[in-house]
Automatic annotation (TrEMBL), chains A, B:
Transmembrane segments: none annotated. Residues 65-84 are annotated as: Disordered. Residues 17-72 form the HTH deoR-type domain. This is DeoR/GlpR family transcriptional regulator of sugar metabolism. The keyword DNA-binding applies. Keywords: DNA-binding, Transcription, Transcription regulation.
DNA sequence: CATGGAACGAGGGAAATCCCACAAAATGCA
DNA sequence: TGCATTTTGTGGGATTTCCCTCGTTCCATG
């Protein structure tokens, strides 16, 4: 009613749908939960229509349905990549939980953006371990903000909405001005010739984190093994340890072992 | 809930209640929404018990009830402040919409954290005006990320979960290394002797934004008039214009007029 | 002008939730 | 041990939501 904006005409149905759904998503940025009846009244449409909106938005992973309404999708919407696999999600949770156990009280930890590292951040907050985290990811920041024991330092940079994280030279410069005891990074691929990332801006951030951290943990699920991405982040020997759901095999396993990379398997 | 828990014995139902509620809150750190039936089954209690848990936790502001379940409390929960007034919310929306109209294509805008400036950010994203925004607020960042036309630059700093924004010397230094055509800041009070902010860390951020912006807009609703906060942000003459819902009156009006502060009233 | 499709609303039976009051069980204290 | 208090479970009626289908409206296209 207040947002039909620039034109005083009657609301055109063609715009109505997209507009309405945009509004729903914007509203969910401000509140964790919206009700069906409430939105139906606000937009002057039937509850059935809102229900259909929820249905579609939910399929795209943009919100979470619940009885009588919907809540915001877990921070950081991993977009249309194949990341939305429920199987993988469970594996990422296991990996994140295991990685969170590596954090010791007093640690300074750099955490990369990504769905797996976000899981780690959630479990670190859950454990309430006293530490300092430096990150370029907004979802990681907010997840860790839940815990009063964690001090979170946000890096500056250009905002990338698709990943809900910042990148660029500001980010890299900032990270290089700091030092950390350990870092946790994700990747799109891990092969015998190194760690790969598809989004170029993020490769530089990961490299920066690796270069200023004493220990480093690569968080990847086993589906990433023996694949490649666009930009190489690091050689195998630059990684301190790999936290994953299934131990690698064959040549990859041999390389990692030879280069002294520890494998931590999350159960 | 005032019972002494320091005697570790077998699982006593006495602990059950507090323990259960703790678990509920921990679960909500990992997921945005939990259902009643689901939790009842998980804890082996009746749904009525879960309902009572929700009721009490909700009263303490630790979660948000919804039909059939509950969701996590809003990230930056400005808790007991009177901020949650629905009336004020509409006024803030009007102010935000009006302020968004001030942004011209090509502008570089600094936007402060706060509920009113967040509204402005939402409407800027809604207008799809091509501009660059520098902010210390995560909600502002994400709201603007909705628009492909807006380039968002995030300032670094210590994360404040209560406001979902960063502050500190890193933030201030970063802002001072930049220049902007205009800035939009909120405040907790506006009186004849200046602009006030209650949270000290944020006053420094607002001052930094003011000092590097050619034009400045103060976004405050009329309930903030003739009140004070803990820290003074600026003198009246340091503000370029005030965007508000109702024109100030009396001495405040006279001072602003004499100091050349423009008043923009949002309809 | 006619046709097709998308979006939306209406209706109704099934299921889930809510709310209230009261009873049962567990616990603390004397 | 016995009693008061707290916590939890149960039951049922009112309400809300769900989910499915069908008819209407509006727009685009030929």
């Amino acid at each position: 009613m207040q947002l039909s904006a620039h034109r005083g005409e009657t609301t055109r149905p063609r715009l109505a749908k997209a507009e309405r759904r945009e509004q729903i998503l914007l509203e969910l940025r401000l509140r964790p939960h919206v009700g069906i009846a409430e939105l139906a009244a606000r937009f002057g449409v039937s509850s059935e229509t809102i229900r259909r909106d929820f249905e579609e938005l939910s399929q795209h992973g943009l919100l979470c349905r619940s009885h009588g309404g919907a809540s915001a999708a877990p921070q950081g919407r991993y977009p249309d990549f194949d990341e939305r696999n429920q199987n993988r999600l469970e594996e990422r949770e296991r990996i994140g939980r295991r990685a969170a156990e590596l954090v010791q009280p007093g640690d300074v930890v750099m955490i990369d953006s990504g769905s797996t590292t976000l899981q780690a951040a959630r479990f670190i907050a859950h454990r309430d371990v006293s530490c300092t985290v430096i990150t370029n990811s907004l979802p990681v920041t907010m997840a860790l903000g839940q815990s009063a024991a964690v001090r979170v330092i946000v890096a500056p940079g250009d905002y990338d909405p698709a990943e809900a994280a910042v990148t660029g030279t500001e980010t890299v410069d900032f990270l290089k001005r700091h030092r950390a005891g350990r870092c946790m990074i994700g990747a799109t691929a891990l092969a015998v010739d190194g760690v790969f990332e598809t989004v170029r801006g993020f490769a530089a951030v990961k490299r920066a984190m690796l270069s200023v951290s004493r220990e480093s943990h690569l968080l990847v699920d086993s589906a990433k093994f023996d694949r490649h991405g666009m930009a190489r982040v690091a050689a195998p020997e630059e990684i301190g340890s790999v936290v994953t759901d299934r131990a690698p095999a064959g040549a990859l396993s041999a390389i990692l072992q030879r280069r002294g990379v520890a494998i931590t398997r999350a159960t």
